[in-house]
């Protein structure tokens, strides 16, 4: 019964593949430019975060009790970890694309399909982590804005009605 299942599933897979999908060498090759640009953006995020950490480290050494700096350092620490995983899954996606192209070249179509799916999943995971990192980075900006708002009198601008102030979490 188990062998019948495998024959049925592989038979269905081959039939499905012949009807709907034929992965060509150009398909994973198209991802090369997209993944390269994505990795460049991730590297820029990493360098900007590293620069912020160095600047905050100097401020922290001058005044270690300031809560704003401590909150930002914690935020940057989590962002740095996310950027590391974004890059990891981006590189993994790139590696899977190369393996997929090799498998297509040696005409191992079914294996190439699965490796390509792995490449796309790695890319998707990288993009989801990137989205979460963007959300976390806005928290650091909110800390800065909250600190600045303490120094501005309320209702001082003509356009204040356009920019509603977020209520602090209680």
Please render the helix and strand layout as text:
Layout: H1 2-20, H2 26-62, H3 67-105, H4 109-149
Helix pairs in contact: 2-3, 3-4
Write up this protein:
By secondary structure, the protein is mainly α. The protein has one domain. Helix content is 80%, strand content 0%. It contains 4 helices and no strands. α2 packs antiparallel against α3 and α3 runs antiparallel to α4. The longest helix has 41 residues. It is elongated and about 70 Å long. The chain starts with a helix and ends in a 21-residue tail after the last helix. The N terminus is likely disordered.
Question: Brief description of this entry?
Answer:
This protein has 170 residues and is mainly alpha-helical. It has helices spanning 2-20, 26-62, 67-105, 109-149.
Give a quick set of tags describing it.
170 residues; mainly alpha
Number of strand segments: 0
What is the string of helix and strand elements? HHHH
What is the end-to-end distance?
60 Å
- Distinct helical segment count: 4
Give the strand content.
Answer: under 5%
The total tally of domains equals: 1
Shape: elongated
Radius of gyration: 24 Å
User: Are there runs of 5+ residues with pLDDT below 50, and where?
Assistant: 1-9
Helix content: over 70%
Look at the helices and sheets and give the structural class: mainly alpha
Largest sheet: none
Average per-residue pLDDT, rounded, comes to 79
What's the quaternary structure here?
single chain
């Amino acid at each position: 019964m188990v062998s019948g299942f495998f024959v049925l599933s592989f038979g269905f897979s081959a039939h499905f593949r012949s009807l709907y999908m034929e992965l060509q060498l150009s398909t994973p090759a198209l991802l090369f430019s997209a993944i390269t640009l994505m990795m460049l953006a991730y590297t820029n995020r990493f360098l900007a975060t590293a620069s912020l950490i160095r600047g905050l480290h100097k401020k922290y050494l001058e005044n270690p009790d300031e809560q704003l700096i401590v909150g930002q350092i914690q935020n940057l620490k989590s962002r740095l970890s996310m950027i590391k995983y974004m890059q990891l899954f981006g590189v993994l996606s790139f590696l899977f694309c190369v393996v997929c192209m090799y498998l297509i070249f040696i005409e191992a179509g079914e294996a190439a399909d699965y490796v390509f799916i792995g490449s796309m999943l790695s890319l998707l995971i990288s993009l989801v982590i990137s989205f979460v990192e963007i959300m976390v980075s806005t928290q650091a900006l909110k800390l800065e804005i909250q600190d600045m708002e303490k120094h501005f009198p309320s209702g001082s601008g003509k356009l204040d009605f356009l920019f509603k102030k977020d209520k602090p979490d209680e």
